[in-house]
## 1
Amino acid sequence: MKIAVLPGDGIGTEIVAEAVKVLRALDLRFEMETAPVGGAAYEAQGHPLPEATLQLARQADAILFGAVGDWKYDKLERQLRPEQAILGLRKHLGLFANFRPAICYEQLTHASSLKPELVAGLDILIIRELTGDIYFGQPRGRRQAPDGHFPGAEEAFDTMRYTRPEIERIAHVAFQAARKRSRRVTSVDKANVLETFQLWKDVVTEVGKRYPDVALDHIYVDNAAMQLVKAPKKFDVVVTGNMFGDILSDEAAMLTGSIGMLPSASLNAGNQGLYEPSHGSAPDIAGQGVANPLATILSAAMMLRYSLNQPEAADRIESAVQHVLAQGLRTADIWSQGTTKVGTRQMGDAVVAAITSTKKTITKG
Ligand code: NAD
């Protein structure tokens, strides 16, 4: 098994180092190879996704990704900006299915911005289509407006589009995921206004007929945004397009206490996956050793489960994370009165210690 390790920029290097430490503590046999990506790759090699990094990612069974981006690259032309690396990897590897679980750990119910009773026991899986929609649709650009309210004025435009097969495959992913959970799928659309999402709704409904054991309901995206803060526990598996999923999954992240807790997996048809925290490179706290590494560590657990076929190892990481939270250890983003504030490295060390102690127990048993 080969893991491509792409730490990237900002806190990316700090949090990935902790996840690598945790993976090493499992005593599994896999090869890990590191390569630059994002701003770090632009500085070193003049491109955010150098050919050698892309080749490594293609050959690997899984990719552990940190985060890319920094405000200092904002003035670069678009194809050289760090964020193009992640978009490029998604496109080149066909990573169309993004899994973002939003789980509120019992110990963190008070870190959420919602009342504890609304989030206690929350366990939602947001499945976001990742390679289509308005982020990739052509044509796009700037021009003089040919018509509209101000003909001749400067305008910018993007294209929202989805083909039937793109919707079918993400719908299948959602229904299959729901079969492993509580057999409920909510499809989020804007079918009342957008052609693209009328097709989305039609196709998801058709695919749903092939999963009679899974309940399907549809909700408009504006209502979904509202319901997520009003009664989040009524959702289980949520499936939606690229842009709506981008926004709703960040909203769901906040329900769990901090974006620093939210892992993600992006899979292609062959189950090769890219695993990364849902947050960005956090330039505001980079280099201070205070970032929460748990989203990245939990992403490594998802990697073991979905791409490397090591579900017990994934369970061990997740239990170790629960254990350190139960011990009262918190990074600054999830800290509250009565808990112990720790830095990035101490949090990683504590997870390693929890894994090592279970290893000793297993060996003794
Ligand atoms: P961000 O997610 O980096 O940060 C948002 C806020 O959350 C900040 O206050 C940050 O300090 C905090 N935060 C994020 N992760 C944290 C962690 N692990 N522990 C503690 N606090 C954490 O989003 P942003 O500030 O909008 O973007 C910063 C850069 O990241 C931009 O260049 C953006 O383009 C990039 N970005 C990259 C990815 C990616 O690599 N997949 C995703 C989103 C944003």
Note: The domain at 99-267 is CATH 3.40.718.10 (Isopropylmalate Dehydrogenase).
## 2
Amino acid sequence: MIPSDRLVIFDTTLRDGEQAPGIALTPDEKVTIAHQLAKLRVDILEAGFAASSPGDFEAVTRIANEVRGPVIASLARAHPDDIDKAYEALKGANNFRIHVFMSTSPIHMEKMLRMTPDEVFRASVEGVRRARQYTDDIEFSPQDATRSDPDFMISVCRAAVEAGATTINIPDTVGFATPADFVELLQRVFKEVKGDRDDVIMSVHCHNDLGLAVANSLSSISAGARQIEGAINGIGERAGNTSIEEVVMAVKTRQDAFGVDLGVDTTQLYETSRLVSRLTGYPVQYNKAVVGRNAFAHESGIHQHGVLRDKETYEIMDAAAVGQQAAQIVLGKHSGRAGFTDALEKMGIVLEDEAYARAFERFKQLADRKVQIGEDEIRAIVEDQIGETREKVRLVGIHVAGGSDLTPIATVRVVKDGTEQLFSGQGDGMIHATFAALRLAFGTEAKLLDYRVVPVTSGADAMAEVNVVVQIDDRTYAGHSVNTDVVEGSAEAFANALNKAG
Ligand code: KIV
Ligand code: ZN
């Protein structure tokens, strides 16, 4: 049983977070993130929605079998098939949870489900009962709770508890609530659903459509919520979910206001944020609380002066407490294996042999072009090598010819079917031409859905992260790369995505 002063952190980066437009994580990438979430010591890790696709089923199964520490959860509609699939995927875990959901708002029931309130009530109870055959750790969520008739939504939740649900999660699915009305609703849920049942816990799941997800989540603690759901970097449907890192640091920094304990290792927050950003291709805004690169940077002279005298003049948290330390490690082209290994050790990064070899090779290539390589860049290089895909076509080189009044022509040199071959393409610009050449090399019509370039550091020789998402048939694949040259980096990221399509 959860002590009443413990706040459970339920991470849904790999389920709701992954539903964000343009994110297409492979099962390997999900497993990599899941291991990092275990290192962060989240309590519950929602690994996916097992019944939603074969890819999700594979990811949930692998995470259940391979990742130890958190309770592993899968989402399931209140349908027998979904619940059976969730169990099939989860059964290898040491501890697992089935998360059953069903909409209770009039608009969802009428327009989406085409079910009457009675049918919704019955299906919710049957869903929880079915999950109960497999586990006694069941979460029930009345979707769109904040736009539901509170009496009806509460009656469904009560019935779910009677059927065996042990966590009742109140989702603000469309980010409609404000802290005051959310607390009022939760006070009713606490009293009328949880009551004096010590084995039942009230949870919240907030979306950020009005920018209130974190505020709503934190306000729920005063109403008795002891589980908060969210995603790293706040990713998720539309404007996203509650940011885990913000909730965690608010609760830790303002113990006086919240008075609940956490199991999270906050020093892993920055690393986790970087990894999620890297693999999803969603950049973290510079001024993002806790994990943004400027979260601990001081620009004005007055601020710098104050911080030099005493950090607490302008800092309420210690950068080290979230794993964001001022960059101290700098490597250069003369740094060898020992220096690189030492830097990784100092940064707490452990790599398998193969990933280490690839990361070191990449480091040497980039160090040849760049005088100094700092911590952020080392991290970007390393993250780029995690979960490397087998390459059907290996990009060896690229040459782009053109000028302001000429149509650019890109020629890519690739190794394909064991031989080196050249392919050329034209386009409106250098990147467009490069992608055209790569489409020919891979023999695909891949459609480019998303393309983003984010500098890792500043300066003329800055390294940039390039992220692309492509669509082939009805599937999407994400690719990324880190390079000092944007055209080369774009080519590498595009080739990386096309190689994932196999
Ligand atoms: O936002 C939502 O309502 C959800 C539920 C499935 C919990 O993600
Ligand atoms: Zn959601």
Note: The two ends are 46 Å apart (CA to CA).
## 3
Amino acid sequence: MTLHIAFDNSYARLPDRFYVRQAPVPVAEPRLLALNEPLARDLGLDPAALGSPEGIAMLAGNAVPEGAEPLAQAYAGHQFGGWNPQLGDGRAILLGEVVDQSGQRRDIQLKGAGRTPFSRMGDGRAWVGPVLREFVVSEAMHAMGVPTTRALSAVATGETIRRERAYPGAVLARVASSHIRVGTFQYFYARNDMEALVALTEHVLQRHYPGVEGAMGLLRAVVDRQARLVAQWMSLGFIHGVMNTDNMAVSGETIDYGPCAFMDAYHPDTVFSSIDAYGRYAYRQQPQVAAWNLAQLATALLPLMGNEAAIPEATEVVQGLAGIYAEEWTRRFAAKLGLDPADPDVQPLATRLLDQMAATWADFTLTFRALAEDGEVPADLAAQPAFQDWRRDWEAKSPDRDAMRAANPAIIPRNHRVEAMIQAAVAGDLAPLDELREALARPFDSDSRFDHLRVPPQEEERVVQTFCGT
Ligand code: AMP
Ligand code: MG
């Protein structure tokens, strides 16, 4: 079976200093763990060919398909607020771009594909755990309607990866509308490379924001998408975990699933990442962090906007994130509560409910889905007089339960399930992976086969941290 991919690599046509040409480093013994057949078809790729030995060799980085121009992208970034002028793809290789069935340009990138000139001390590899976590969580996000990078495949490498201990290696094939980050702009700004900033801005406008003009227009457009993206995360209880500027895509897609997680028990101060000691990227911080990151984008674009003279307008654009975020948040929570988004009571009603949920550590997903299904909310919450008052006020609005079921997932990739799936996969059992994939493809359905996946973790099952040891 031959694999034909019609690559058209626009990033590789940008100036040399945007990347380093670098082929993936072959792995010992590729074995397919997961293949996303619907996504393959969207990309115009034949799933059977991708699943053949030739296809798997490509997905592992052992064979470079015709038309690919593999490269590692250069970027910089603020990591936990600290500036790093030189990051770049240390373990990811962009194979190339394809134009999908709907005319959208998509990157195909291999993550865990070996060392590159940007690897610094790293081994260029990934292990099965984070690869399957990203596969499952990013696909679940997509199924919930959240803009996100996608997962095309996960391939075990047959090699051992050293982290806190030894783990089996894997390569993820990731698909994105691009992998251009806030940090990509910062990289050229820091080098005072105006020519590159101009070329990058034009590339991004053409690729992601056709019709938008100029650096100020780009900033405005990115602020709008990020404000809406983060509001959507918040409405699902999603915590990204590492919102560094190099992990924020200018396309507005969620990118770089590391120590990310969906909250079980609701509390706005929740943090998962083991490396986030000060809670910089806690749930409640996410909108402010988005604005902080976009202020860095504004800074990087300033030379194209007229320097000092542009500061007042650029500042206003970045500060405008709060208003767009608030509007989108209200729209999302109105849907979650089955209310009219124009009803001025939405915001206070949603806030009262969330306050009661936080006070009782009510499970986020379960509570909203119970309200949608007219079922029982968690007992500690139900027992609160303030919640009973809230429920009366809310029911008086005759909430639309059908709309609620379409806005409140029954199934999310709960952290304890993801961890158990990873442990099973490491032990050679892919059944939990396959089950999670099937259930999460339809997260808003009430499918009794998957009722067990709705259940929050028992005390001893709770995963309180996810590790960045990716
Ligand atoms: P991340 O935390 O995955 O967003 O990565 C931050 C930076 O570290 C990026 O430049 C990555 O390419 C690089 N990096 C992360 N893990 C590795 C690794 N195992 N080998 C080489 N570079 C890595
Ligand atoms: Mg990253």
Note: The chain has a mean pLDDT of 96.
